[in-house]
Structure formats: C-alpha cells, structure tokens
Design a protein that fits this description.
Keywords: NADP. GO terms for molecular function: oxidoreductase activity. This is NADPH:quinone reductase-like Zn-dependent oxidoreductase. The chain is an alpha/beta fold. It has two domains: about 1-120 and about 290-320, Medium-chain alcohol dehydrogenases, catalytic domain (Quinone Oxidoreductase, Chain A, domain 1); about 125-265, Rossmann fold, CATH 3.40.50.720. The protein is about 25% helix and about 25% strand. The chain contains nine helices and 15 strands. The protein has helices spanning about 40-50, 115-120, 125-135, 150-165, 175-185, 215-220, 245-250, 270-285, 300-310, and strands at about 1-5, 15-20, 30-40, 65-75, 85-90, 100-105, 105-110, 145, 170, 190, 205-210, 225-230, 255-260, 290-295, 315-320. Helix 3 crosses helix 8 (about 270-285). The longest helix is centred in the C-terminal third of the chain and has 16 residues, at about 270-285. The radius of gyration is 19 Å and the shape is globular. The protein starts with a strand and ends with a strand. Bound molecules: NADP nicotinamide-adenine-dinucleotide phosphate. NADP nicotinamide-adenine-dinucleotide phosphate (NAP) binds next to helix 1, helix 3 and helix 4. NADP nicotinamide-adenine-dinucleotide phosphate binds near residues 42, 148, 151, 173 and 212.
Length: about 325
C-alpha cells in the first residue's frame, strides 16, 4: 500500500511516498481503509526530529488520526466493527497511509452528517481543548487567553471557552484576517503573537491555554490574574526557556499555576464520551470545524511546507 514516511528528520522535505505492506490488526484492533488523514501540529514537531528522546525514529510513518471504513478486525475482536465508518486514533504514527490500525478503545463511529475529513479536524483537537480547559479548572465567568489560537486545538478552545461562559476570550494570532475568523468562533479580543495589539483587552486572565510554549512563554506568566492558571497543551514554538521558573517565582504573590496537559492522562472511556458528544454536535453544525485545504496523500510534503510557512488556519486534511 501507499504511505508517507519520514526518511530524514528536519522538515517537510524529509517526507517521502513509500510502498509498504498493509498493517495487520492485532487482538483488540481494527484495520481502517483510510479516507481522510488529519495533519496535526504534532506531526510537524515529530518531523522536526526534536522528539527523538521519546523514541521517534527516521523511517516512521507519521499521522495519529484517520477516518474511513473498518475492513478487518484482529483475533478475538468484535466483528461488528467491520463495515462501520469511523474516526480512529492511530497512536504514535501509521496514519499517513492507505490503511491503518487502531485499538478499538480509540475508535469512534462517525455519526450521519459528519464527513471523514471533518472528523479528523476534531477527533484529537476537540478532546485536547475540552480537557485542557478542564485541567485549567476553567469555570463560567472567568477570562481566557488562547495562545496560538489559529490551529484546530485553539479554534475549539476559543469556541468552548466562549460557550462555557467566559466574558472575555482573547487570542494570539499573526494576522488581522485570522483574528476576524477567530472572532466568528467566539474571540472577543485579538492580540499579536507577543500578546499586545488591543488596548481594550484585559491586562490579565484567569486561564491561559497555551499551544505555543517556546521562548516567549515566560512573558505570558505575567498575564495571569491572581490565582490564574496557565496550561501548556502544545509546543509549536519549541520548548520553553529556563527563565520560565524565574517568571513563575516572580509572580509568587499572585499564587499562579503552571501546568502541562496531555490527553494521554485522560482515561480512554472519558475521551470516547467527549469525542462522541463533540462528533454529534459537529454533525449538527454546533461546533466549528475548519478544514484549511484537502490535498492528496502524495502532497504530504506540500502540506507540511504550508504549515511551516504559517499558511494554515485550522487543519490540512490528506486524502489517500
Ligand atoms: N496536549 C495534548 O494531548 C496534545 C495532543 C495533540 C497535539 N498536541 C500539541 O498541540 C500542538 C499542535 O496544535 P495545533 O495543531 O492546534 O497547532 P498548529 O495549527 O500547528 O499551530 C497553532 C498556531 O500557533 C501559531 N504559531 C505557530 N508557530 C508559532 C510560534 N513559533 N510562535 C507563536 N505562535 C506560533 C500559528 O498561528 P499564528 O500564525 O496565527 O500565530 C499556528 O496557526 C503541538 O505542539 C502538539 O504536540 C497536544
């Protein structure tokens, strides 16, 4: 079958179309004939090579979320999955391919009205946005800043905060045009990447959902209100500098909290419940889904170049 593998770490040009044997589902797994693949910021981070310490190696087929039809199941696995249209989390890789395997606990049926392409903009991101806000102990009436809001996680975090009763939802983004799009999903204030650019924005926030991390993270600690919580859910700007600890201590008297959040720490049954509910809402048009562009799987290099150039609002979807 056709797949796309990381031949060399470093950037988009390290991706190559390859011919590999189709995977076989193991016990408790399904095999999905893939119709749509979500291209996530996490794929770009893996492709950069910066996660080598976590076991990612050259040769890997990246891609953690796909949607399509179940065509086979492993030994001792419920055969009623066969023929069902599903969204599936493929784990640490394997998604950029014509067929992919996934554990049944990470497979969710697609409701009528939700396309495969739409589901891969929501399946992973929606859960991170939902539980990221929960991890930050967000409650109605609190102000929220979403840093790096122009990707799938950010768009959903803005929507959920606004619909969850945040009176102010500020975003950081690199363009006024994206700011206008983010206002449509619930942003009340649009800031530049440094956190400036709107004099009417609150000076500080109860909750910051941070998808960027990187060298500027310490300056956002100063944008927390007393008892404010900053939760890092991503690192598209790279790891934070050592000054982060100094920034936290400099805000000692505000009792601020810094936390990381990974969806890996949420029980799979809870992830499934939230995904199922979000898919139903999306099928009814009650959740924003932003497909930036759909490209053939062969164009994975182009997809990653567009991400690297900062051209993508929402998510690129690859079609095998
Ligand atoms: N916590 C979890 O369980 C979990 C699960 C999946 C993924 N992730 C993480 O989430 C991140 C990807 O999320 P995503 O797909 O929503 O993000 P994304 O689309 O890759 O990026 C979001 C936005 O961040 C801004 N940005 C990019 N580079 C930046 C930089 N150097 N400095 C400041 N802003 C920058 C860009 O917007 P502007 O140009 O408009 O500023 C970009 O559109 C990855 O770090 C991934 O590892 C976490």
């Amino acid at each position: 079958m056709k797949a796309v593998a990381i031949k060399a770490f470093g950037g988009p040009d390290g991706l190559s179309v390859v011919d590999v044997p189709a995977p076989e589902p193991g016990e408790g797994e399904v095999l999905v004939a893939v119709e749509a693949i979500g291209v996530g910021g996490v794929d770009a981070v893996i492709l950069s090579g910066s996660l080598g310490d976590l076991g990612f190696r050259e040769g890997l087929v990246p891609g953690s979320e796909v949607a399509g039809t179940v065509v086979a199941v492993g030994h001792n696995t419920d055969r009623s999955w066969i023929g069902r249209r599903v969204w599936a989390f493929t784990g640490l890789g394997g998604g950029y391919a014509e067929q992919a395997t996934a554990a049944v606990e990470d497979v969710v049926p697609l409701p009528p009205g939700l396309s495969a392409a739409a589901s891969v903009t929501l399946g992973s991101s929606g859960v991170v946005a939902h539980f990221g806000l929960q991890h930050a102990r967000f409650s109605p009436g609190e102000s929220v800043l979403v840093r790096g809001a122009a990707g799938s996680i950010g768009i959903l975090a803005v929507h959920l905060a606004a619909h969850g009763g945040a009176p102010a939802v500020a975003v950081t983004t690199s363009s006024a045009e994206r700011g206008e799009l983010l206002r449509k999903v619930g942003a009340t204030h649009v800031l530049d990447r440094s956190g400036a650019g709107d004099d009417t924005a609150p000076p500080a926030y109860d909750v910051i959902v941070d998808i960027v991390s990187g060298p500027d993270l310490p300056s956002f600690v100063g944008k927390l209100r007393p008892n404010g919580r900053l939760v890092a859910v991503g690192a598209v700007g790279g790891p934070p500098p050592a000054e982060l600890a100094a920034a936290l201590m400099a805000n000692f008297r505000k009792s601020v909290t810094f936390a990381t959040f990974s969806a890996d720490t949420v029980a799979s049954a809870e992830r499934r419940t939230v995904r199922t509910a979000q898919f139903a809402e999306a099928a009814d048009g009650r959740l924003p889904l932003v497909i930036h562009e759909q490209l053939p799987l062969d164009d994975a290099v182009l997809a990653h170049r567009k991400m690297k150039n900062g051209e993508v609002f929402g998510r690129i979807v690859l079609l095998p």
